[in-house]
Each structure stands twice: as structure tokens, then as C-alpha cells.
Amino acid sequence: MTKQLSIPNQPWTESIQSVCDSLAVSVEQGLDGDEARRRQEQYGSNRLREAQRRSPWEILIVQFKSLVVLLLVAAAAVSFIFGEWIDGIAIMVVVLINAAIGFVTEVRAVRSMEALQEMSQVTTRVRRNGEELEIPARELVPGDIVILDAGDIVTADLRLLEALKLQSDEAALIGESVPVAKQVEPVDREAPLAERNNMVFKGTSITRGAGEGVVVATGLDTELGEISTLVAETEDEETPLEQRLEKMGQKLIWLTVGTAAVVAVVGIIRNRELLVMIETAVALAVAAIPEGLPIVATITLARGMHRMASRNALVNRLAAVETLGGTNIICTDKTGTLTENQMTVIEFLLEKGKIEVEGEGLTPEGEFKHKGETIKPADDDLLRQTLEVGALCSNAYLSKNPEKPANGNGSVGDPMEVALLVAAAKAGLERDDLLERMPEEREETFDPESNMMATFHHQSDGYRVAVKGAPEAVLDACTHLLTNEGVAELAGQERKRWLARNQKMAEDGLRVLALAQKTVGSAEAEPYSNLTFLGLAGLLDPPRAEVRESIAACRRAGIRVVMVTGDQPMTARHVGQAVGLPNKMEAPVIEGQEFQEMDSLDEHTKQRVLEAPILARISPEQKLTLIELHRQNGDIVAMTGDGVNDAPALKKANIGVAMGRRGTQVAREAADMVLQDDAFSTIIVAVEQGRIIFNNIRKFIIYHLSGNMSEIIAVALASLLNAPLPLLPLQILFLNIGIDVFPALALGVGESSPGIMARPPRDPAEPIMTRRHWAIMGGYGLILALTILGALGLAVVWFGMDIRQAVTVSFLTLALAKLWHVLNMREQDSGFIKNEITANPYVWGALVICAGLILAAVYLPGLATVLKVVNPGGQGWALAAVMSLIPFVIGQLLKLTHLTEL
Length: 902
Hints:
Layout: H1 16-22, H2 33-43, H3 56-62, H4 67-81, H5 85-119, E1 123-128, E2 131-136, E3 145-149, E4 157-169, H6 171-174, E5 180-181, E6 199-200, E7 205-217, H7 223-233, H8 240-269, H9 274-288, H10 293-309, E8 313-315, H11 318-325, E9 329-332, E10 344-350, E11 353-357, E12 368-370, E13 373-375, H12 381-392, E14 397-398, E15 411-412, H13 415-426, H14 431-437, E16 440-447, E17 452-459, E18 462-469, H15 471-477, E19 478-483, E20 486-489, H16 492-507, E21 511-520, E22 531-540, H17 547-556, E23 560-564, H18 569-578, E24 589-591, H19 603-611, E25 614-616, H20 620-632, E26 637-641, H21 647-652, E27 655-659, H22 665-670, E28 673-675, H23 680-720, H24 729-739, H25 741-748, H26 771-798, H27 803-821, H28 841-859, H29 861-867, H30 873-895
Parallel strand pairs: 9-23, 9-26, 19-22, 23-25, 24-25, 26-27, 27-28
Antiparallel strand pairs: 1-2, 1-3, 3-7, 4-5, 4-6, 4-7, 8-28, 10-11, 10-22, 11-12, 12-13, 14-15, 16-17, 17-18, 18-21, 19-20, 21-22
């Protein structure tokens, strides 16, 4: 008979027995296999919301939803209606080529993300049928009994049944960097998530101790699942590149319709044949549409993704590559991005004065210095005892073999305890060796109320009690002070002096711990009374070495960097000053309590928040407000994050940047870019690549569209003048796909000009083609068009060629002119001979390919027949070659006037 279960709504308020009764489970036996399967059917897999798998058909259909594609299809349909079968088939081939490239690119991206999800599956230890089993985490169901140990990832929300020195790192969920001590007694119904210390939550990790828990929520019903739902509901923001390309496409469509309408009206007035007008309309439609633009844009962005991946920046969305180039605000978290994310003891303050500790990170090497002179802890009794207490009063573990670290970075446990172990190891004091001499008999677990922790160690004269904790609490429990001369009484005035020293260390940005000890006769003695004070340990998460220069590079590039942290204002200010963030120490630090909902902010507060270089005590909700403020201000915002609670902000920002090493899966999936090395400097590399890509996109668009514009102008003018069309529809299609694409692609993958990071970022509101760029493109198009018409006129009038041969000359003139025209795309301040275009090997490869295609168009029988091209003869080739140089010569002369600066 199936047991009835009722999942507790607030399990933290109930006793262990009540929760287990509600879930119909025995702690000793766990669920049986049949019941687990039944619950799996009822409650589903223990998974977060996943994007619905997109079928190949869905991906394929998307490729045909472009306005450009629809126009091409319409042109093909008109060709079929009027019996121009070759033209119609050729246009549809172009449509299919575009669709195939987009389809293959998107399928690969989608399937890669699906494969990544499959690789990220984890397992969990459970008790079923009285036996411990290891099962996939997705198979967990409400009522499962889960066994926990240090280093485990929690895979569901659990009500704790046992907690032996158990602590969990809940930073990814609640933003608190200090591990949370756990217990099993019920807590208040109104307790916030951070204070439900008889629960552990999906997505967090066990930092020390052991325990057991019963599953009370799985999948989307967990606290993590609720945040995941919030991420799914957060609206995806269209990137600036997508917005600009859409606007540009709309302009091109209106240009096409308007031009075709004018030509049609004029043709009707002049009583031209309907078939001729249809042929002209198709030619104009084909000329106006940049068929090769989607191909080149996709490949250029993909090339940028490849470059960035080689520099530790993985981009999830193609268009996000370019958006980075327009970023003018980087909101970065502190820990692990600006800092090393490794607590390090940098000083001890003892009765004799400050002892500086050298060395970085987890490397157990470094000297101790007092007043500039190196001292040996073995010869300094006060320092040695302080280091011993720091190592003994701990539950952390430090790997002795750096090649085989215990937990990724060589340690398990509270980062501050690890730092104390490293400091002791620098003095040759290993915790294992100390425990052999002084075995641990008892531990008084850290209590948030007392703010202290104590351990009892057996020795010949009784028990040595090692204590560490908050300076105010430890000093209050101390009656004596250890000095070089021995133990002295800790008087009231001396106690105030130590409290002032603690305050000064905190103002310097240090996390401060106090250390004390005593000797007692029994392991049952009260730990926190009559202690002897040893001194203060100052810990720091040091800034990354390269961050200061990276922030300076941002400043030169016109990018503002804003630190957004949940840490204390004092610590945030100190780290900010160390990395060169604020220009002055007195720069304002805005606390999260100063701004909440957008609607409640006055203009003065908004301005203060927008201008502040450092924001401290910021909640995940306030990050969303901050992003919205900057976006309303017209900024393009990049936001970094690593925790589950960062995911909504990562999705809301123009560019969400997640940490690859310490970032959670939810954060990585919400972000547009993942930093494999968690380094701030990698963001700068990505910004530079984004700027390069945008410049390249603008270059190839101007190149591509100026050629298309020349075709529109030439066809329109010829129609208005009642002259033969200088270019036929399939010839235009051949030029746009065969001749335009390769040089445009070469421009798209070129390197940058040297000073690209010395320029300010683009105006976020600036379109991909400004009025000046449209003017440049139109000017080049007019020059090319007049050259084509000139070649056609000379061929007919001067050389007496027939229409078909003359049209071949105009076709070849434009084809060759486009090859020369690519050299007009160099930067204004670059050299005539040596510049980023001539230094690009892809350009020369493209020109060789295009030259071969031009020859094939004339001399390959089948292709020449389809294009209606004939051999122009020596005179025709000479005329085309000479006329094709005119746009190049004029373009180079215009470079001297700065009128064509891109």
C-alpha cells in the first residue's frame, strides 16, 4: 500500500520527526525503490527549467523569416511568373545558400549547449532500502535521505537530520561569503533564507563537517529553482548590433520599393513594354538586396568568437561579440574578478608590534618581517604560539601535494581558516604535526551569537584551549595578554587600545580575526572565559596583479568601471583604491540601502548612483535597478557575476559576463559571455575584439552596399533615360554573391588599426551606418554607377559594339572596379602602400579568387550562357580595365580630404 505524503510547506519550522512523518520515510531505511520510482513519476526529474529542445525544422524555418530573404523570394516568384526560369532558379539558389549557412551555424551552437548540459550532471549519495547508494542527482525525489560530506554539492533542498560540525557555502544563493554553520533544531517561521540554518539548499556546497538531510523540494520547487524561473522570465534584451542591422534592413527595403515605384511610373508614362519593366524591377530588387551580407556578418562574428575563445572568453551569442565593442560601462563584482578570491594573512598585530607576512595565495612560502627585518617564528615564542592557535582552531584542510589539490585550489574549508593554515605552514607548522603532539579532544563550533570558535587539545599539563573569532568578542572574553616578557593583565585601557587597532586594520580593508588561548584541567571547561589574548590577524583578498593596468586601459578607452559588491563599504573602498578604481580615496561609496525600487528614486539619488565608482552592500534586486538606471541613461552595460543570485542581472544587462571557474551553472547559462580564467583583463580583450569586429562590419557594409548602390543607380538611370540596362538581374546576382562576398569577408576578418583602444566607445545610440557613412556609401555608389554607364556608352558609341557585348563591358567594369574598390576601405590615417587592408592576406586571397570568377563568367560556356555574357575582345577588356580604375583613383584622392573617413 502506498504511503501518504504531504510535503511540509515550511520544513524549517518543524521537528525532524514531523518532517519525516509528513514525507512518509524512515531515516534508517530511506525510501524503497518502488516508492522512489512512483514519486519520480509524480514530481518529475530533479532538474531546473531547461530550454525546450529546438528541432532542426524549427531552426530551418527561422532562416526564412528575414525581410531580405522574403524580398528575394518575391523577386524569384516574379521571374517564374513571367517565364524567366533561369533567373528565378538562380535567385532561389542564393536563398538556399544563405539558409544553409545560417542553419548549420545555429544547429552547431544549439547542440553544443545541449551537450554541455548533459556533461554537467552530478551524482548524490542516498539511503534507499537501508543501503547507501550513489544515484544521478536528477533522480532525487521528496523524502530521499541524502548523506553529506565536506566538498559535496547539495543537489536538492534538504531539511537537516544530522549536522556534525556542518557548514555550507551559500554565497551562490544568498551572496554571503562566510560559510553558514548548520544545526538541526527548528527555527522561527519568519526566518529569512540566510537564517534557516537547519536547511541546506540546492546549488550550494558543504565546506566542512558531515550530516544527513531529507529532501523537501526538488527541481523548480527549490529555492534555486525559483531563481531559475525568475531568470527564464527576465526578458532577453536585443543587442545593439541586431537592432542596427534591423533598422538598416528596413531602410534598404524602403529604398528598393521607392526606387522601383519611381522607375515603374516613369516606364508606364513612356509606354515601355511590361516585360521590360518587370525585368527592370527584378534587377532593382536584386541590386538593392545585399544577398551576401548575412553570410559575411555571420562568419565575421564567428571568427570573432574564435579569437575571443583563444583568449579565455567564450561567447554564447554571436551578436554579443560586437556589443562588447560598444560597451561604455562595466559593472564588476569584487571577489575573484578584481581580487584573487584567496584570503591571505598579510600581517599579525602582536604586543610587540606588527609582523608582516610575505607570500601570495595558497603557496606555503614566505618570510615574516618585523620593522623591516626577517624573523624566524621558531625563535619568537609569541609569534609561534599565535600561529599554532590559528592552525589548531580550525576545520580546514590544506593539500600537501599541489599537483593533486583537495578541492580544485588545494584546500577544503573556510577561506579564512585556510589562510591561517597557510600562514602557519610558512613557519613550518603543519596542522597534522601539531595534532600529533596535541590531539584534539573537543570542539566548540563557531556560534554566530558568541562570534567565536574554540578547540581543546590534550597536552602534558592539561588541555590547551585555542580560540579565534571576532576581535570585540574575543577581547571581551580575555583577562590577560601575552607579551615577550610573559603574561600580563589586560586592563580596560589596554583593551580599548586593541579595539582601536582592530578598527584601524578594518579601515585598511583587512578582514580581522582575534586569537587567544588558555590552559585548563578538563576538556569540559568553559571555553570563553579567562582567556589570554595573543593578537590580531589581518587577512586580505589581494587584487589581481593585472587589474590596475586593465582599469587604466578602460579609462583610456573611455569605459567606466564600477565595482558592485555585497561587501562592506570600507573593504570595497580599499580594494577599489588598490586597483585604481576611484581617482581619490574620498570618492563616494554608495550603499545599497540608498536606492531600492526605480519608482522611489529622486533625480539627485539617480545621479549619485550613476556617477559612483563603487557600490557596496548591493543585493541582486538592486543590481537590476542599477542596470536599468544606466540603460535609461543611454549606456551599454556589461555586468559580471558568478552566483545564482547574479543570473537575473546577467540576463538583464546588454552583456552578461559569468565566471567560468567559480561561476554557477545558472549564471553561465544566463550570461552572454563566460570568462574561463575569471580575469577582469579578459573582459578588456573581449571589448577590443568587439571594437575590431564592429569596425570591420562597418567597412564591409560600406564596401558591399556601395557596390549595390551603384547597381541601383545605374539600372534606374538607364531606365529613366530609356537606355539599355547596363546590368542584367543574374549578372547583378553573380556580382553580389560571387564578387562581393569574398572581399567583404576578407575585410570582416581583418586586424584592427593600432589605436583602436585609445578611442572613446561609440555613442550607444549611433546606428551601424550614420548619415556620414550613408553619404560615403552613396558617393562611392554614384562614382561606380557613372563609371558603369560611361563604359556602356563608350562601348556602344566609341567602339561600335552591339548591346550584348557592350553590356558585358559594363558588367566587367563593375566587377573589376569592385576589386579595386576594396583598397578604398583603409583607415583615413593609414599609409597608401602599407595599411591594414594591404597587410591582410585574406584580401589578396579574395582578389585572386574573384579574378578567377570573372574569367569564368566570360569563358566558361555554361556560366556565360546563364549570365548572358560574351567575349568582349581585347578592346572590351582594355576599356573595362581602364574604366574600373576611376573609382579607385577618386577614392584615394578623397582620402586626402578626410571626406571618406570611416
